[in-house]
Specification:
The complex is a heterodimer of chains A (422) and B (518).
Chain A lengths: L1 H6 L4 H20 L7 H26 L7 H18 L4 H26 L3 H19 L5 E2 L2 H8 L13 H28 L6 H23 L9 H19 L1 H11 L1 H5 L5 H27 L1 E2 L7 H11 L11 H20 L4 H24 L3 H12 L7 H13 L1
Helix pairs in contact in A: 2-15, 3-10, 3-13, 3-14, 3-15, 4-5, 4-6, 4-13, 5-6, 5-13, 7-13, 8-9, 8-18, 9-18, 10-11, 10-18, 11-13, 14-15, 14-16, 15-16, 15-18
Chain B lengths: L2 E2 L5 E13 L2 E12 L3 E5 L6 H8 L9 E6 L2 E3 L4 H6 L2 E4 L11 H5 L6 E2 L2 E2 L1 H15 L14 H14 L4 E5 L7 H16 L3 E5 L3 H7 L2 E6 L2 E7 H4 L3 H9 L17 E11 L7 E11 L3 E5 L6 H8 L6 E9 L2 E3 L4 H6 L2 E4 L3 H5 L6 H6 L7 E2 L2 E2 L1 H14 L16 H13 L5 E5 L7 H16 L3 E6 L2 H7 L2 E6 L2 E7 L5 H8 L7
Parallel strand pairs in B: 4-11, 4-12, 7-10, 10-11, 16-23, 16-24, 19-22, 22-23
Antiparallel strand pairs in B: 1-2, 2-3, 2-5, 5-6, 8-9, 12-13, 14-15, 14-17, 17-18, 20-21, 24-25
Classes of the chains: A mainly alpha (422), B alpha/beta (518).
Chain lengths: 422, 518
């Protein structure tokens, strides 16, 4: 147990979550007679949850900053229908449609960010209003109809990496990405380790590092194998690719940039941040705006996948995204959370959903189980804190957020998670 | 049955050798207090002397068992386990921060937690009748239905007293009751306390305003460094302000400061006519046309009692981060500078270490290295990407040079002791390389050893040619550290004394009166 903990950075929370995810996957793999870890199911799972995971990326930043966004489902639906209409009625090509959708998301986000940051209305209220507003706009603009989107736009939600190169029996591009990812993880880990050592910071023992890398790479390569050997015509899905890119970008922003630092600072102690020269209003504005941009993207991916935009797209998404973030270790009071944790949290929910479905468990029981899982995950956290080790938990959280100097750890865990999930 | 003292007067309350310890600190040590029935008894002492702690022991905020010593009240030994128990015995405390709910009406506040009921339902007719009586007794002419937020602080104070009267109070404790009031409201309140005395209600009043104490108190107990020093009878002993001050500060100065040869240069920072309004209360000023200057290499002290406006002055200067700016100019190196935002202030070369480390100075979720660079991320980032190696190196440098005790700079700041937390905060501001560093209570909640180290750091900064402003409630600290000391009273600078002409008595005099020294 101790050795395992060491392997995952000595962090009970992170360890617990990844452990739970792996345990879930193993459990379902056994009880579904191997139907969980098949290429078809894994690809399906990804396609069906990528938009929630994308929302979770934006949501974790909002929650770290100490807010919440209830409007994401409605914003996604509104952007989806508007883009579908723009392409049908104004004849926009698919790429212009995407740009238009992102821009629309930004405008909506600016609207909500203005009220939250500059007027000072709690985000709960602003986005509750937004939830009603943009749901209404969706149905008003789309006249509550279903609006189909063109074939090439559907690629966004249901496309796969193309087949290129010699016939190896695998999807070559997927294979290539998998190998690059594994190599990237190894190189960055070792470089960061060397750098930390040079600075005199603590580094884990070598065997820990090596075992960790072997496990991660094994997981990445196994996932690659699954994705590359699917039904002909399928491979690593485009939404998964978009998600992976976003996780990399946002993980980097949250962890390594001044803006990311400011988000944590504002959420952790707004007054202290302001007295250190952080412009908290600007930070809050950007965080809210970013959320709506990502919601717009999620909406477009969903529309692409379901081939048409409808009046009830995105109902309840906000709750799934928020649940993912909290299962992923964010604190309701702000200042704590990670992009990667939220993705793991989202995957826990997704695997649970998928596995229960495979087992033929009804929607009623599935909801009950998911509700209990959310409660249990957060209760675990609260219990840890109530042990009078608030500061220690804080420290653990910290480790989780910014895994010391090991720069690509973000990447690492993402891939690791994705592969474990597979 | 009542006990009598040697003069044959009845004793209402006697606290005997009360000792109260917090982890690492002895807040009260063998404190005794004897209050006669029907008198007004004042408790005086510097900030942090232990006055409020003593009152919290008395009122059951710190329950029986968490302190040692006896409380004898109405000739019986009492073991209050919470505030309700002490209130049941007729002891009511009115805190400095009023405990009223702004959205509720006067009447609802008076009866909060004590509602008159008829079969479990609140009897508003009765409540109204009684609140009208109570308001009449405290001399407040307001409709009981008026929300608390619509009346001024002075009237709110009266509502608090009405609330206490409703609990059939025998011993009323007022903690800094006039701190937030203007002169006429204060006078009204003092008259009311005298009036209550006429009706047999005993009061204990804690106040920094010595003139008020002189005016209304019968006896004064002076507390210093957690010990009761003396009890003076105002009439019998012929007590005046100077006498009280002597008791409050009569402490020997130990050599608690590193040796320091000041190298003072020319004036480089100057504030003129700095006037700032209270953030909420429309026509109250928290800084009244303050003028002061700082020379290079100089440590300038700001002395003032709690609530005098020292912190308010510092924070309003530091990017207008407190209060409503009204007017005033700041000159640095002869040029006028704009300090409208914290960012501008930092860029202009100011740094501010807050008095409230936990709620304003630190993000307790952060680790040491993140905190060290938090105010100057620019210096360690390329194109807004933080260079975590530089971050580590910088934090490590400050850890070594300030001798912060921690296993590593990756440790969470919440785990550090007060002194080490303060070093991290100092490191954060030193890393911004300020020309003027404002330190607000830099040694609050820090043990003696760490204090000495912090003094050393402050002196080193001054030797580098920086200006340092030190705000402190501890006069010995200011006297030991500063080259020059300004005194503040009720938002106005009342004087400035050079190191060699300043003494605790001379400072205290300027800190407790509106007399202009110069």
């Amino acid at each position: 147990m101790n050795a395992l903990k060491k392997l995952f950075g000595g962090n009970t929370r992170q360890f617990g979550m990844i452990f739970a995810l792996v345990a879930l996957i193993v459990f379902f793999q056994i009880f579904t007679d191997g139907r969980t870890l098949t290429p078809g199911n894994v690809i399906n799972l990804f396609n069906g949850n990528s938009y929630i995971l994308i929302l979770a990326i934006g949501m974790v930043l909002v929650i770290i900053a100490g807010h919440i966004d209830l409007s994401v489902g409605s914003v996604a639906a509104f952007v989806g229908v508007f883009v579908a209409l723009a392409m049908r009625d104004w004849g926009l090509p698919w790429w212009a449609g995407v740009l238009f959708g992102l821009l629309l998301g930004a405008v909506i986000g600016a609207w909500q960010g203005f009220w939250v940051a500059y007027v000072g209305i709690p985000a709960f209220i602003v986005t509750l209003a937004g939830m009603l507003l943009f749901r209404g706009f969706n149905q008003f603009v789309g006249k509550s109809n279903t609006i189909p989107v063109p074939q090439d736009f559907q690629f966004l939600g249901s496309g796969y990496l193309p087949e290129i190169g010699p016939n190896t029996g695998f999807n070559n591009l997927t294979l290539l990405i998998g190998i690059i990812a594994a190599a990237f993880v190894v190189i960055m880990s070792l470089r960061a380790r060397a750098a930390s050592k040079a600075l005199g910071a603590e580094v884990p023992e070598l065997w820990v590092e090596v075992t960790k890398l072997v496990l991660i790479c094994g997981a990445i390569l196994y996932a690659t194998y699954l994705f590359a050997t699917g039904r002909p015509g399928t491979s690593f899905p485009i939404p998964g690719l978009i998600l992976a890119v976003l996780v990399l970008i946002y993980g980097f922003i949250a962890d390594k940039t001044v803006l990311g630092r400011h988000v944590y600072a504002v959420g952790g102690n707004r007054h202290a941040a302001e007295l250190s020269g952080v412009q908290s209003k600007k930070v809050n504005f950007l965080v809210m705006m970013n959320m709506s941009v990502l919601a717009g993207l999620a909406g477009m991916i969903f529309v692409g996948r379901s081939t048409a935009s409808g009046p009830f797209d995105g109902v309840g998404w906000e709750l799934d995204a928020i649940a993912a973030v909290f299962i992923g270790g964010a604190a309701v009071t702000g200042g704590v959370g990670t992009v990667i944790g939220s993705i793991v949290g989202g995957l826990v929910m997704a695997v649970l959903n998928n596995g229960l479905q495979l087992l033929g468990v009804g929607a009623d029981l599935t909801q009950i189980i998911k509700g209990l899982v959310l409660l249990a995950a957060v209760a675990f956290d609260v219990y840890n804190k109530s042990q009078g080790k608030r500061s220690i938990t804080g420290l653990l959280m910290k480790n989780f957020q910014r895994n010391n100097d090991i720069k690509p750890d973000e990447t690492t865990s993402t891939k690791e998670v994705i592969s474990k999930e597979a | 049955m009542t006990t009598l003292n040697t003069q044959g007067e009845p004793i209402l309350l006697e606290m005997r050798s009360i000792t109260k310890e917090f982890p690492g600190v002895k807040a009260l040590s063998n404190v005794s207090l004897r209050v006669m029935a029907g008198e007004i008894h004042a408790i005086c002492g510097e900030n942090g002397a232990g006055k409020s702690t003593l009152m919290k022991v008395l009122s059951g905020v710190y329950p029986y068992g968490s302190y040692t010593g006896d409380i004898v009240y109405q000739a019986e030994t009492q073991q209050f386990k919470d505030i309700r128990a002490s209130e049941a015995a007729g002891i009511v405390i009115i805190h400095q921060e009023l405990a009223l709910i702004p959205e509720l009406s006067i009447m609802e506040n008076i009866f909060l937690g004590n509602e008159p009921t008829k079969w479990g339902v609140i009897d508003w007719t009765e409540a109204r009748k009684r609140s009208l009586e109570l308001l009449a007794r405290v001399g407040l002419r307001e409709d009981p239905d008026t929300p608390i937020k619509e009346i001024g602080v002075g009237k709110q104070q009266l509502v608090e007293i009405a609330k206490a009267l409703n609990k059939s109070v025998k011993l009323l404790i007022l903690d800094e009751p006039t701190a937030a009031l203007n002169e006429s409201d204060s006078q009204h309140l003092l008259d009311l306390i005298l009036g209550l005395k006429g009706r047999g209600i005993t009061s204990i009043i804690i106040s920094h305003k010595l003139n008020e104490i002189e005016q209304i108190a019968d006896e004064i107990t002076i507390i210093r460094d957690g010990k009761s020093i003396e009890t003076l009878n105002v009439k019998r002993d012929g007590v005046d302000e100077d006498r009280i001050i002597k008791g409050m500060v009569g402490r020997t100065l130990e050599s608690r400061f590193p040796d320091h040869e000041p190298k003072i240069g020319e004036v480089f920072f100057e504030v003129k006519d700095w006037t700032v309004g209270h953030p909420q209360i429309q026509d109250r000023l928290i800084c009244k046309g303050s003028n002061f200057f700082v020379r290079r290499g100089e440590i300038v002290g700001f002395a003032g009692l709690m609530g005098a406006g020292r912190t308010e002055l510092a924070r309003s200067l530091f990017g207008h981060s407190y209060g409503r700016f009204i007017k005033g100019q700041v000159y640095k190196d002869g040029k006028q500078v704009n300090l409208r935002t914290v960012r501008q202030a930092i860029d202009a070369g100011l740094g501010y270490v807050t008095e409230d480390r936990k709620s304003l100075g630190l993000n307790l979720l952060d680790d040491i290295k993140t905190t060290t660079v938090a105010a100057n991320l620019r210096a360690i980032s390329n194109y807004t990407v933080v260079d975590t190696r530089k971050e580590f190196t910088v934090a490590e440098e400050y850890r070594k040079s300030l001798r912060t005790k921690t296993p590593s700079v990756e440790e969470g700041v919440a785990k550090l002791s007060g002194g080490n937390q303060q070093k991290v905060v100092l490191a954060k501001w030193m890393f911004t390389d300020p020309d003027l560093l404002i330190l607000d209570e830099p040694t609050r909640g820090i043990d003696v050893g760490a204090k000495y180290e912090i003094y050393g750091i402050i002196q080193k900064l001054a030797n580098q040619g920086k200006g340092v402003i030190v705000i402190s409630s501890e006069l010995p600290e200011l006297l030991g550290l500063s080259d020059r000391i300004y005194t503040i009273f009720e938002g106005a600078i009342t004087g400035v004394l050079d190191k060699n002409e300043a003494s605790q008595e001379s400072l205290m005099k300027l800190m407790t009166s509106a007399r202009k020294a110069a």
